[in-house]
Amino acid sequence: MIVRLVKMEFKQVEIENFRSIFLIAQTQIEKMEGCLSVNLHQDLKQPEIFFTISNWDCDASLENYRQSELFIITWKKVKPLFTKKAEAWSLTSSQNL
């Protein structure tokens, strides 16, 4: 299993806009082949910082999503709302090493 962690920091005035975009995209992402789950988390002390944590059956499924029209369209909507460049990590459990 692959865990994808993405950290994003938004303009304060764009937080609700981002939430709306995510809620629409979340259902579609979860329907992608190989997606096990995708969730949104907000930092308690810095509410402009969000993390998405998604679980994928394998790296190929994650890469297929990242090349999909859904990802490209969603990213074009979200990217202008950032205050900083997003950071992302693809992780595997240390039990799988």
* CATH-derived architecture: 2-Layer Sandwich
Form type: globular
Beta-strand segment tally:
4
Radius of gyration: 13 Å
Share in helix = 25-40%
Topology pattern, helix = H, strand = E: EHEEHHE
| Terminal-residue CA separation | 11 Å
The fraction of residues in strands falls at 25-35%
Total domains: 1
Unreliable stretches = none
CATH fold-level topology:
Alpha-Beta Plaits
Strand order of the largest sheet: 2-3-1-4
Biggest beta-sheet profile: 4 strands, antiparallel
Q: Compute the number of helices.
A: 3
Broad CATH class: Alpha Beta
Helix and strand content put the structural class at alpha+beta
Mean pLDDT reading: 95
Care to describe what's here?
This protein has 97 residues and is α+β, with helices and mostly antiparallel strands. It has one domain (2-91): 2-Layer Sandwich (Alpha-Beta Plaits). It has three helices and four strands, in the order βαββααβ. It has helices at residues 15-30, 59-66, 69-78; strands at residues 2-9, 35-42, 49-56, 87-91. Helix 1 (15-30) runs antiparallel to helix 3 (69-78). The longest helix is centred in the first third of the chain and has 16 residues, at 15-30. The mean pLDDT is 95.
Question: Secondary structure elements and their pairing?
Answer:
Elements: E1 2-9, H1 15-30, E2 35-42, E3 49-56, H2 59-66, H3 69-78, E4 87-91
Antiparallel strand pairs: 1-3, 1-4, 2-3
